[in-house]
Design goal:
122 residues; single chain; 0% helix; 56% strand; four-stranded antiparallel beta sheet; elongated
Length: 122
Amino acid sequence: QVQLVESGGGLVQPGGSLRLSCVASGSIFRINAMGWYRQAPGKERELVATITSVGSTNYGDSVKGRFTISRDNAKNTVYLQMNSLKPEDTAVYYCTQTIYRSEYDIAAMDYWGQGTQVTVSS
């Protein structure tokens, strides 16, 4: 089994910063892409940022220039540094990792964390 656990969410004032972490554990052979998505009440889940195994990144338009995604392959961990936070960034943030559980897997599978709440409010 593979488990993803997020941490770092909370309440922050507008203009503040938070850093989210997501660590994968269990039967892991190799991790390809990692990413973060978010879902606000009444809205669909949307892309925040992704990072490939070689470090190429992609960001949603609403967070470009404010958020930075990074990864530590030795720790099976993906991070999301969020700066200049706005009230519209309030959402549940979910991490995802595309994982091969063994060298015999034909295809990688997408795993998701349980989500962490980020609230931006004064």
